[in-house]
Design goal:
heterodimer, A: about 290 residues, mainly alpha, ABC transporter involved in vitamin B12 uptake, BtuC, two-stranded antiparallel sheet, B: about 400 residues, alpha/beta, Rossmann fold, 4-stranded parallel β-sheet, 3-stranded parallel β-sheet, globular, disordered N terminus
Amino acid sequence: MTLVLEAAVLGILTGGVYALMASGLTLIFGVMRIINVGHGALVILGAYLSFALFRTLHMDPFLSLVVTMPVMFALGVLLQLVFIRPLKTDREALSVLVTYALALGIEGVLGYIFTTNYQQLRAWYETASFEIFGFHITYVYVFGFVLCLAILGALFLVLYRTSFGGAVRATMLNRTAAQLVGVDVDRVSALAFGLGVATAAAGGVVFGITNSFNPNSHYDLISRLLTIIVLGGLGSLRGAIIAALIMLVTEDITAVVISPVWANFVFFIILIAVLIIRPQGLYGVRVRDRI
Amino acid sequence: MRKPVSMIVAGFALGLSACGNSSNNASGSPAAAAPITIGVSVSLSGDFSGDGKALVQGYDLWAKDVNAKGGLLGHQVTMKYVDDASSTSQVVTNYQNLITQDRVALVFGPFSSLLTIPASVVTDRNGYAFPEPAGGGPAVFAKGLHSIFFVQPAAVEDNLVSYTKFLLSLPSNQRPKTAAYATQDDPFTQPQVDKAKSLLEAGGVTTASYKVYPAETTDWSPLALQVIHANADVVILGTQEPDAVAFAKVFQQQHYNPKSMIETTGPDQGKDFADKVGAKNTEGIMVPAGWTPAAKAYGNDKFTIEFVAKYGGASGDISADAAEAYSVGQVVDQAAQKANSIDNKKLIDALHSGTYQTIQGPMSFDSVGRPQGGVGVYIEQWQGAQAIFVYPSSVAAAKPEYPKPNWP
């Protein structure tokens, strides 16, 4: 397999991991119109929770999601009740400050408990691979990609096949109108925030196996996740998936064809070009119109 | 969306500024035998947080030792640490504050050339001696400052010289014909790799691939793929620990087995590295190192025993960063005795003459603080799940494994 093709495959597989991490962020924005800049820290928190279970109980990182996702869901609901719900005016701007403070708090607590040393989750599938045309595909990326599809599929089912999903979509479409027709917007928001944070736990596991991380890793992560949801269209799950794949494939191919120095730059050229043509991002308006 | 994202992001960006008062009396000596404070900016968060913590351990252990023997020329020492978050701007603010507001008697260096360079300008402007454990890139000395002293056996750019000597000393039928290089654009890593490249090319080893990547890179997989495609006999990587781990993992995933592989930082982190890569996967990986717990250098046995007693673990787990920090204290202690003063100007003069004994071996400094006449940097290799010295033979505890065993 040629180097470019290998880089493209790698980009798609890594893109799945980023799509998973970005899905919660875009869902939260779609429902609540808040920019959760603490989402990166919540991803790292998810990775640390799995790390703690791995270290103390030798629990497989993917299996640990059975524990960490419900815990993170509950944490998300609690955070929404305590920090987000009180924001009644200028939610978009204030939410940035509040969730940034949240990120710093999480970073501080993690640093205190786990120290700032880099950690990494270990599992048999982190280096085990199978071969296709001479290129070895590592199981962890395949598992991560499947997990991404499963969780995003579940999210789509919840959104389009349940009454709760109808309430979520109504809130995403028009918060005030949803309230007027009897949707308990506060409840929907709390549960949606919980769902978004639970997906962060899932993203954190795959990120934690494929990357070294420490409590400060969220800074780089959130900047990339925000970029993904801006390209995909704020509030669009489908957009987040497509944008994550575009970002990682572009960066990986640029890194091998031109130089790693240009990897981000080329992606941002694409981002700017898309935003000039479609300021709402790839799927921003279309999805919201359809909803 | 009611507001453009750019407005939100702009609102999110908070500007911080700091200012400090200049002081002309910072180099004055405190009253005789009065306790003194030594200030250090350390990276307790950010990219260098692991190394920062190791520096604190080394500095603290030296302070404990020097206080136990009566203090630094009779002055009991207290260490004051401030976190620079691995930031080149914060490190400047920190030293400015330590000198002008906290009025510390002495300052010791932070981690990395990246932070040492801007910090050295501040300390020099205020007349402070700046012995430092981890800033040895060419750019550190290029400033021509008379007050900085790099307390390691050799300038950073020479770190891989021993490795190139080892490769070129191999019998011609074993000597590598091609080499692949990848390095961060960091003043610590890139000069080492560049010098190794020029020496190997001069020795007849063809460059199959050479890539420089931004220090901010977080996804190293495409770079590792490029190195793999070069299919070189040896791989030389200018890494910190996270990318050192990532390269090793991708090589293993892709079943790429170079004859030899060396990384500038990462494999020297003992158990921390083995935990991430997997102990059995470390076999044969090399790293340049100036210090080993087993070295028969001045005070090294005492340091190793005390370190394990204070922080736990095994001697093999001790980070070289901690040993380098401890050496800074040793050098300053001997310079103070030689100058019979802890006045910064007198310390600077003293440090520019004579030889100082450290747990890394003897060292002296030229006019810009570059280490001179030291014992040089050795090669460490992971064998049997521990890193041991393998080259040169004068310090080797075992023969180098060449070619490197295949990944398990």
